[in-house]
UniProtKB/TrEMBL annotation:
InterPro entries per UniProt: Imm7
Protein name, per record: Immunity protein 7
Length: 133
């Protein structure tokens, strides 16, 4: 099983006072880049309290095809809007190194880094009684 849940607050800069017209253009670019992503279950780009937010989520039987596209999509948002920040949680039970762990991809200032998740890992026994490796 491949499970993913993430969010990004889209920002042009890390100053917190982005030009409204620039931010609108960046959101349009992010929206265009998301149109080509057909494999993801939930892709929700909207404005909330004057700020653009992106939410991603879903499940897939096998993450082999969707995993790279998901991470590329997440990183692309940071490239387009370098002040963006957010988190993407991924569990891929077919990942030989992390089959019993959630991974967290952190976006800060548009840059993505990979981290272990201390809250839901190890998946068994934290959230599941067990499963076959």
């Amino acid at each position: 099983m491949f499970e993913y849940h993430g969010w990004v607050t889209i920002a042009a800069t890390a100053t917190g006072d982005d030009d409204a017209a620039l931010l609108e253009r960046l959101v349009e670019r992010v929206g265009r880049s998301l149109r080509d992503v057909g494999m993801l279950d939930l892709v929700d780009l909207r404005w909330s309290a004057g700020l653009p937010m992106l939410h991603l989520g879903g499940l897939d039987k096998h993450g082999g095809a969707i995993g790279p596209q998901l991470l590329e999509t997440f990183a692309r948002v940071g490239e387009l809007a370098p002040g963006s920040y957010g988190l993407l949680h991924v569990w891929d039970d077919q990942d030989a190194e992390h089959d019993n762990d959630f991974r967290v991809y952190r976006m800060a200032r548009g840059q993505v880094s990979d981290h272990s998740d201390p809250h839901l890992s190890p998946v068994a026994p934290t959230v599941l009684d067990g499963y076959e490796l």
